[in-house]
Amino acid sequence: MIDLRLVRDDPDRIRASQRARGEAESLVDALLDADAVRRAAVARADGLRAEHKSGSNAIRHASNDERPQLIAKAKHLADEVKAAEADEAAADEALHAAQTAIPNIVEDGTPPGGEDDFVVLDVVRTPPTVDEPRDHTEIGAALRAIDTERGAKVSGARFYFLTGVGAQLEFALVNLAMAQAIDAGFVPIVAPSLVKPEIMQGTGFLGAHSAEVYHLEQDDMYLVGTSEVALAGYHSNEILETLPLRYAGFSSCFRREAGSYGKDTRGIIRVHWFDKVEMFSYVTLDESQDEHQRLLAWEREFMDKLELAYRVIDVAAGDLGSSAARKFDIEAWFPSQGAYRELTSTSNCTTFQSRRLNIRTRTDAGNQHVATLNGTLCAVARTIACLFDHHQQPDGSVYVPAALRPYLGGRELLSP
RNA sequence: GGAGGCUUCGCCUAGUCUGGUCUAUGGCGCCGCACUGCUAAUGCGGUUUGGGUCUAAAGCCCAUCCCGGGUUCGAAUCCCGGAGCCUCCGCCA
Length: 416
What we know:
This protein is an alpha+beta fold. It has twelve helices and 18 strands.
């Protein structure tokens, strides 16, 4: 949810942002209209309420003679108040709808354009050269680490079992990620995967991409696609006394992957369920760009520990989620695909989420909404896929990066 | 799943039976000032959160006693529905 005051004071800035995203500028004018209508409705209802209130107070002190007349008058006013309040509620709802229709304001410096218009900020390490590379599905099967066939038998397409060393790898990666996060001062958290509608709504996942989200109709609960949701909801309706707050959340993540038919159908790169360690920061708005760089740096640190060749990209405006003002992805090299594929993503959501979730902090200038930022530390399934693909050896074994070995009993190679 | 209790402006709390200056009491904490020749004690004042009005500040107005309805001229208070928390019973990893 964007700042209404900013819309009033500087609508052109919002229009420019809409243009950059390739979205309708007319939504800004619709919002301005809805705001004016609401303010008029509020002023009218407030005035009537004040009149009615003083009328009611007068009844108490009135003599028996004047009382019936005053009551009749107050009765009439009460009806008017009721009608005015109905208008007010309708205007409120219309304003809210107009306000939620507009995505976050794009940060200055964001590349314009769509999905293919990202800017490469950095390229780290040389991709390994592998003759006739096998993909992670094949390697995972040979190592008896990933069982997609039984995943499909039990749960359907885009499900898998991690078995043996695959299961061990999951815990190794989670432990490595958590250890790094704790060292950096994050509070480790195990977060719920099921959340209420208002939390899902507040994080912006029920907008344009609501088809991506699993909904449990019987209970009106949502399965989260990332623990970002629960970590943002964690401080909803609170005034935070000390900033920054940094959490490293572990949870299972669920994605319907509607509209991605045919993409990555093989293996565990794109699945309906996976586990993830997610970084989440609450900071002041002024600090948010610096914090964004810090989150990116921690993501890079993790990639470095896994000894992966990767590049950092600055995602273009048209490819940002509705909550994000800026987004950086890290893409690691998959030899079998001959391509960089997204492994992590970090977004600065500025005050977009905190407005809907009502999260503020005290400042000299009054209570201000905080900025929220999120960043992947390790999405387990995809990271395992990448490790197998990236670190495969000619003899069919997989090289284990040094940082991971302590969590895998010291093994340097995984062999069939 | 069954029975009962609870929910008040940071925390604790009075008020709810018996509707009306409740414009919500007091304590703790916090902030400011005063005093004291110690970062103690004391005194005084302030301290919910939103919205509207206003060039701005001040001021004024409206809302807010878990949430949503209802009764009434008038609801923290009465009625209905819901949520959350606690206790006990049942079931359960």
